[in-house]
């Protein structure tokens, strides 16, 4: 009886450990920005440092949990924000990682943007719960000659008002002492078509009046 009880307790402990591991995704919410007021600009970035035990910690002290995809182990950093109900917005962002060889280095650096359907619980290292992301994983581009590193870029990505989004970065920490990346995101309002049409019509009327005055 004692052996059966001990085995049951051990099994329950194993299930508990597995449950905790399963409930701890590799996603690290660097910042939950909350509601943004347009226009909006913010610096983004993270620095990973070796913890002396073969792992890494983020700049806020959180341990880095890696997710294995194929033959690579990625960190996943998330910047979450909510758009107001109006107007629609245009999203731009850029981030750069500098490669200092075996000392400090991030490799396979890329980013994506997707809409959250169920708050922070829907953050994922796989396909977003909402299906197709707003912009899938970006390709990386080498920096200018003389600088080794990669950069990712989002240009004029249309966002729907009244939704929650996650800007997500991933990469492999290849430096013995860690690595870092940094950049900026910018969100600007997009005028509604009707408003834009009114503005264009008003400019046209002003131009016509000036032409008549000259005549």
Report on this model:
By secondary structure, this protein is of the alpha+beta class. It is 20% helix and 43% strand. The chain has two helices and eleven strands. The longest helix is centred in the last third of the chain and has 22 residues.
Low-pLDDT segments, ≥5 res: 1-24, 194-203, 205-211
**Average of the residue pLDDT scores:** 80
- Main β-sheet, in a few words? 6 strands, antiparallel
| Share in β-strands | 35-45%
Radius of gyration (CA) equals: 24 Å
Strand order of the largest sheet: 3-2-11-6-9-8
Helix and strand sequence? HEEEEEEEEEEEH
Mass-distribution shape: globular
Total count of helical runs of at least 4 residues: 2
Query: Which structural class matches the secondary elements?
Result: alpha+beta
């Amino acid at each position: 009886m004692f052996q059966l009880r001990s085995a049951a307790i051990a099994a329950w402990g194993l299930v508990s450990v597995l449950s905790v591991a399963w409930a701890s995704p590799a996603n690290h919410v660097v910042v939950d920005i909350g509601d943004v007021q347009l226009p909006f600009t913010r610096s983004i970035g993270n620095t990973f440092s070796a913890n002396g035990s073969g792992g890494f910690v983020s700049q806020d002290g959180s341990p880095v949990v890696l997710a294995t995809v194929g033959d690579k182990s990625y960190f996943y950093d998330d910047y979450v924000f909510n758009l107001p109900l109006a107007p629609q917005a245009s999203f731009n962002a850029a981030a750069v990682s500098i490669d200092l060889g075996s000392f400090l280095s991030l490799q396979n650096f890329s980013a994506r943007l997707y809409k959250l359907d169920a708050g922070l619980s829907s953050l994922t290292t796989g396909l977003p719960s909402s299906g197709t992301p707003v912009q899938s994983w970006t390709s990386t581009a080498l920096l200018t000659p003389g600088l080794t590193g990669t950069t990712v870029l989002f240009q004029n990505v249309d966002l729907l008002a009244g939704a929650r989004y996650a800007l997500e970065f991933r990469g492999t920490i290849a430096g013995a002492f860690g690595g870092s990346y940094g950049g900026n995101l910018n969100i600007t309002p997009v005028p509604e078509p009707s408003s834009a049409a009114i503005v264009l019509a008003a400019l046209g009327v002003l131009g016509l009046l000036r032409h008549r005055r000259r005549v």
